Predict the structure.
Amino acid sequence: MRISPDGKTINRSKKAIRKSIQEKRDGLAPESRLNKSHIIARRFLGLKEYRKSGKILAYFPFRSEIDTRVIIKEALRQGKIVALPKVNKKRLDLYYINSLSRSLEPGKYDIMEPIPSECTRALPGEMDLVITPGVGFDHEMNRLGYGGGFYDRLLREIPFHIPRVALAFDLQIVDRIPVSEHDLKVNILITESVIRGTEK
């Protein structure tokens, strides 16, 4: 008989995995991080899900995350509508942006966020495609977040049929992430060497 781990055990495991991955990701040389980010961006921009989309939820890169600015700039250049999140207490509010240089300002946690007076409010259900951040992922498409629960809450507001794409470096993929019932998977996972969850 298999006994499921309790919540405390899961949280301890998540914390240890999160710390290990973040240390490895922080250790990437800036040039390597940028080169890998460009490879991943090209893979994302080639997705049929991206080509068919009109409205995209993205996020601004923080610390050693993949540089998503390439994707945001290209999507705006192609005339797609791009939304970014803004922290509002325990939740994320979404806003459509017009420019990375004019629509954003430092927000909570020093992450660049939309300026409400310069942007238009967006609703989660309006998106055609969601780029989902995460510290780590496994081969079953499970996601390990940063521990604040912001995206867990947001993803529950987004209809299940809307594709959720995760962008990660190879080093962020682990064999198994411990999950709870409320944890949501991603549909597509892209690294510098592989694309999972979509037709080639």
Q: What stands out?
A: The first helix runs from residue 7 to 26. DSSP finds five helices and 13 strands in the chain. The mean pLDDT is 92.
